Amino acid sequence: MATTTRRRVGIAGAVVGAASAGVAAAALAKRYAVGRIRLRPDPEASEPLGELRGRQVTVTTSDGVSLHAEVDGPEEAPLTVVFCHGYTLNLDSWHYQRRDLRDYHRLVLWDQRCHGLSQRCSAEDSTIDRLGEDLFEVLEELVPGPCVLVGHSMGGMTIMALADRHPELFGDRIKGVALISTSAGKLAEVSLGLPALLSKAVHKITPGAVSLLGRRGELVDRGRHAANDIAFLVLRNLGFGDSKNVSPTVVDFVESMIRSTPFEVIADFYPALMSHDKLTALGVLDDVPTSIVVGDKDWLTPVEHSKAIAAALPRAWFTEVPDSSHLVQLERPATVNDALRDLLKRAAADMGTADGR
């Protein structure tokens, strides 16, 4: 009996040892792969990502949430450009746009509620309509004159919610809109690049899984911090269209923004994103110059969603950016900035000014 027990213990120990060795080997391989990627020449290595700052201000919303914002650029500029960031990101996701536009335009960048340095709120108040009202209150407090709105992903949805709730602003105070990698609705039907049956199964189980994990947010966040190499590889391959050539510095920068967003916040906003439907509000945007930009490999808000927006806005300018994905403003900043400059020129022309650089 003792011999049998020792044999079982020995077998069990060998299995555990082999499994541990396998995990260790996988971790070592992953670390080696990430290390090799980061050792490649990186033209963005010296870029001060996340370090550009403006005058910091706080906007307190009508429901008592403190929103962090920054005002940058010349105060005397005739146009203010207001940047609305995407899901799980923060105002620093507009780094390249701020860098290239701040010399000529007054800029307002803000952290959406529960993101960045803005205050957390309840799950009940984590909705796209509430974000639209937040944007209205940011405009009321920080934008004294005409402006152009720029929204990425959830930020584009925020602009649509504003159009739905305050259509009178468009054409009056709001002189132009840029919608980048966003959707007017039906995100729950996105294939995520998967076969139809698998995509349907993923969409069926994801809401429950996200809700369950959201209730264990602190535990999930500890795991996310421990698995940053895995997150780097996943983000590099899914968040960018040209994963082989994307800057590892940029990938690290985005990953740090996502990781700083508590999983509880991710879970709270997920239902709002999936139920978002503002197609009927888009007509309001046809009253002002509008630019639509999307990466051709965007699997989160696919090209078809931007084309649906363009179909509802026949006078809009549509730009499909090759070899780029959902984070197109960071992956192809020159192309996005050119589209924004064109939009600003059109907005300035409508105002009868020449400031569209």
Automatic annotation (TrEMBL):
This is Lipase. One of its GO terms (molecular function) is catalytic activity. Residues 81-339 form the AB hydrolase-1 domain. Gene3D superfamilies: alpha/beta hydrolase. Pfam families: Abhydrolase_6. It comes from the Bacteria. SUPFAM superfamilies: alpha/beta-Hydrolases.
